[in-house]
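Thought: the user wants the 3D structure for the chain below. I'll pass the sequence to the structure tool as-is, report back what it returns, then summarize two notable features.
Action: structure_tool
Action Input:
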Amino acid sequence: MSATMNPTTESVMHKSEVIASDGTRVSRTLVNFWLDSLLLLVFALHSIASVIVQFVFPPGVAAKGWTLWSMNYGQWCSVQFFFLSVLAFGILVHVMLHWSWVCGVIARKLLHQRELPDDGIRTVYGVGVLIVLLLSGAAIVGIAMMSIKMPLQ
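Observation:
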């Protein structure tokens, strides 16, 4: 092997690095650290908002007119949903960054295969899992919307 690298091999990104928007290389370890730190922070904020909605405000319609730090019950529910959405997106990115590892564990440890699926197959599996999760969630919400009942007058 030659001591100097040709331009083609220089442009290949090492698996432990990602390319930032300005073209600099960033360690995957740092990306994972900051993503996990952000997930921890958002989880803590979501937990606080959930405790406030569940235990500080009176339940349901009894909370009408009550405010905490200039926000009413509905606004606190919106804050809670916002943090839940950010948390879900962060977890999705986290799993995407570790998708090769997830596929490796499933293939080797659960299915006892010697060969790992190639990148294309792993991508298809990932998109398939995401579609199944989204459709399942949509089905549950749809069923809930069709099943909800108004109180008797």
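Final Answer: Structure generated. Residues 14-90 form one domain. The chain has two domains: 14-90, 98-148.
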